[in-house]
Design brief:
With 740 residues, the chain is an alpha+beta fold. Among the domains are: 3-151 and 383-417, no CATH class; 158-213 and 362-382, no CATH class; 221-263 and 274-349, no CATH class; 425-514 and 657-687, no CATH class. 50% of the residues lie in helices and 10% in strands. The chain contains 26 helices and 19 strands. An 8-stranded antiparallel β-sheet has the order 13-15-14-17-16-11-12-19. β11 (428-432) and β12 (435-437) form a beta hairpin.
Length: 740
């Protein structure tokens, strides 16, 4: 039977969790056939190497392209690499971190190297004869690499050279060509860096050798470079001066304009001037006149005095002798003297090593430093096989400890759904509002994370976390899957515990509101009604208080002034104060009392109370008219009408809760709909409860006395009945009474 046929014949076992089937990886046979498992059945296809609770170095070893992400192909490569070097893959499923030496396949060439290297490591650690090697042992290999000159990675740090001159050039190469860390973490150079530096050094030295072999190039010897710098500093300005003088000779009318106008000087005079001012430097080098020589002392633009002084000292004096002025012929001689040097400059080579200078580069070549460094790199490369074997031991020991755990958080989410271990994306627990949340993930950018995480239909609370002592900061997203969210508001504080047991101060900064539980949905309508009634009462009371506060008692003028004697009414006229037939009812003066108005108000209030009482009486009478077995059904019906829609909506949303968007927002590629149903969600958030067997004293000296609701209800029914009777026949009886 071929390998393909054997893998195809493998019988996979699945378990149901989160609303979908997940593969069970429980044996070496499962690992061998993993490459043949359809990746559509994998829970995840990619995850980040950071932001998860997993050994970072192990993830870096699996991350073959070093892009910060683990993909399915890299998982399969790690599994294949491990199986090739293990004689018994079942060791991956046994408890413990140590790798028995007997589990290494010595019949495989790579396995034999790892076994020999593992024994060498144990011997160096004083554990000769040990039958297993642990991650703690391989951690010491890093210290071994740090204490040795050569570790076989082809990277040569300066500390590996005993000759200080060689070490100095290694540092120069690092500065100019860059560096990379070796296995011990120290920066160093590689063979390509050395070759690049050596080629540049040879080119630069050859270029300088040409100048030394041709006297015309270095016309002033070793001072030529400095002299040419002084020459180049004034070259363009001197060319400008002689060109202006030629124009003045060509046409005398141009002389005034070439010297700048008086208006230019007037404009310049309004500024705060100095010799370094750019406005001054833009003026001609000296006064322009036809055929005039350039003065080298007095009469020069102040902005150019120092540069012309250096030019006179370093260029004019050595090449022409003492001069107080420079004519056009002298200038042309100087230009010709530097022409070979400038041509040589245009052919410059070895720019990389130029900062070191020609003498330093010459020492590198003459002293054979390049060959010495190359020999050291060769010595390092000679122990590559041995050093690689030590690194391979570390890789195998880490895979023995961590590979299965990664598979149970990548190919399947077994750790998350079984609850035996925390999943690698669960970074700790948040304690807030009398509960603890176990589904907590990193969310460095809450706004960006929330855009995708809101599709999970899970109530997420984002918190900024800080260590009480130190400057460590991070942002988390905690899933609330039990209780309610009434008291969870932005700005509230809690405590976050990471897996190392460290506590962080957590402050709520953002909330994604989704249903948390059916209990919350049941009470939500009643809470909203209560909040609405309370709000309306508060608004009415506030409005009434404001109106009373603003009301001003106006004293009528008739009261303030002395009243005149009332005139005697004419015959047949109505008496004062008597209502005129057909006239509207009189309006009470401010401060007066209008019995009619208040009677209308009381009647309206009585009518409203009567209506309420009638409605209550009707409901109560209808309820009491039911049979005893119908009464509970009626109550259940009322509850269903009020809470039913809220519970139905919450139930539908709770069934849609999905872990995938939360992880996708952190860079995962979740391949399945990892549901968080109601029972499982309840297990992720723990509500406060008393310990089992705890004693509880029920007497509370500060407890509020329970109101006598029975008395209140009885009085309410009596009042409602009386009001109802009043509106049915009480009014007529009262009228008859007053008539008699």
């Amino acid at each position: 039977m071929t390998v393909a046929e054997a893998s195809n014949a493998h019988v996979w076992r699945f378990f149901r969790a989160g609303g979908f089937d997940q593969v069970r990886i429980e044996s070496g046979a499962d690992l061998k056939a993993l490459a043949q498992l359809d990746q559509k059945l994998w829970v995840a296809l990619s995850c980040p190497t950071r932001g998860v609770e997993f050994d970072a170095k192990t993830l870096d070893l699996i991350d073959l392209d070093h892009d910060g992400r683990i993909r399915a192909g890299e998982i399969l490569s790690a599994v294949s690499w491990t199986l090739e070097r293990l004689a018994d893959p079942e060791i991956l499923f046994k408890d413990g971190d140590a790798l028995p030496l007997a589990a290494i396949d010595a019949t495989h060439p790579e396995g034999a190297k790892i076994l020999a290297s593992a024994k060498r490591i144990l011997t160096n650690l004083g554990k000769k004869g040990a039958d297993s090697i642990s991650p703690g042992d391989t951690l010491d290999t890093e210290r071994i690499f740090a204490q040795t000159k050569f570790n076989g990675d082809g990277v040569l740090p300066p500390e590996a050279a005993e000759d200080e001159e060689v070490a100095g050039f290694i540092r120069n190469i690092m500065d100019l060509c860059g560096s990379r860390p070796d296995r011990s973490g120290m920066p160093g150079i590689t063979r390509p860096s050395l070759e690049n530096f050596r080629a540049e050094a040879i080119a630069y030295a050859s270029w300088w050798q040409q100048a030394k072999s041709e006297p015309a190039i270095l016309s002033l010897g070793d001072e030529t470079v400095t002299a040419h710098a002084a020459f180049a500093a004034v070259k363009e300005k001197i060319e400008d001066y002689f060109t202006r003088c030629h124009l003045a000779a060509y046409d005398p009318r141009a002389e005034g304009a070439l010297n700048r106008s008086e208006e230019d000087y007037v404009a310049l005079s309004s500024h705060l001037l100095s010799a370094e001012a750019a406005e001054v430097g833009d003026f001609p080098l000296a006064r322009i006149a036809a055929g005039r020589a350039l003065p080298l002392g007095d009469g020069v633009n102040p902005a150019w005095t120092l540069r012309l002084a250096d030019f006179k000292k370093l260029v004019v004096l050595p090449l022409l002798g003492q001069r107080d002025q420079l004519d056009l012929d002298d200038w042309q001689k100087l230009t010709a003297a530097f022409a070979p040097f400038e041509q040589w400059l245009t052919a410059k080579a070895g720019l990389l090593v130029e900062p070191l200078g020609s003498e330093c580069v010459a020492d590198f070549i003459l002293h054979g430093v390049g060959e010495k460094i190359e020999a050291l790199i060769a010595e390092d490369e000679a122990v590559q096989a041995e050093a690689d074997a030590i690194a391979e031991v570390d890789r195998l020991v880490r895979y023995r400890r961590d590979l299965l755990a990664l598979l149970n958080n990548f190919v399947t989410f077994r750790d998350f759904y079984t609850g035996r271990k925390r999943a690698i994306f669960q970074i700790g627990s948040l304690y807030l509002d009398g509960r603890s949340c176990d589904l907590v993930v990193r969310a460095d950018d809450p706004e960006k994370h929330a855009k995708l995480a809101t599709l999970s239909h899970i109530c997420l609370v984002y918190c900024d976390c800080a260590r009480p002592a130190g400057d460590e900061r991070m942002t988390i997203a905690a899933a609330f899957t039990a209780g309610d969210a009434d008291l969870i508001v932005i700005g509230r504080n809690g405590v976050f515990y990471d897996h190392q047991g460290r506590d962080w101060e957590a402050t709520v900064v953002k909330i994604i509101d989704h249903p948390i539980s059916l209990r919350q949905a049941f009470w939500m309508p009643y809470r909203k009604v209560g909040q609405t009634i309370s709000s309306q009462i508060e608004k009415a009371a506030a409005a009434r208080a404001a109106a009373q506060h603003q009301q001003v008692v106006v004293v009528p003028a008739a009261v303030a002034a002395p009243a005149a004697a009332p005139a005697k009414p004419a015959a047949g006229a109505p008496a004062p104060g008597a209502p005129t037939p057909g006239a509207p009812a009189p309006v009470a003066a401010p401060g007066g009392f209008d019995a009619g108005r208040f009677a209308g108000i009381f009647a309206a209030i009585g009518l409203a109370i009567g209506a309420i009482g009638t409605a209550i009486a009707s409901v109560v009478s209808s309820f009491l008219s039911l049979s005893w077995w119908q009464m509970p059904l009626a109550l259940l019906g009322v509850v269903a009408i009020v809470s039913g829609p809220s519970i139905l909506i919450a139930f539908m949303k709770l069934r849609q809760r999905n872990l995938g968007p939360i992880l996708d927002a952190n860079g995962w590629a979740v391949n399945s709909r990892a549901k968080v149903n109601i029972p499982f969600g309840t297990s992720l958030t723990h509500l406060a409860k008393l310990p089992e067997g705890a004693e509880r004293a029920m007497s509370d000296p500060y407890a509020e006395k329970p109101p006598p609701w029975k008395l209140y209800l009885t009085l309410g029914f009596i009042v409602a009945g009386l009001i109802g009777l009043w509106f049915v026949g009480g009014a007529q009886l009262a009228l008859q009474f007053f008539k008699h």
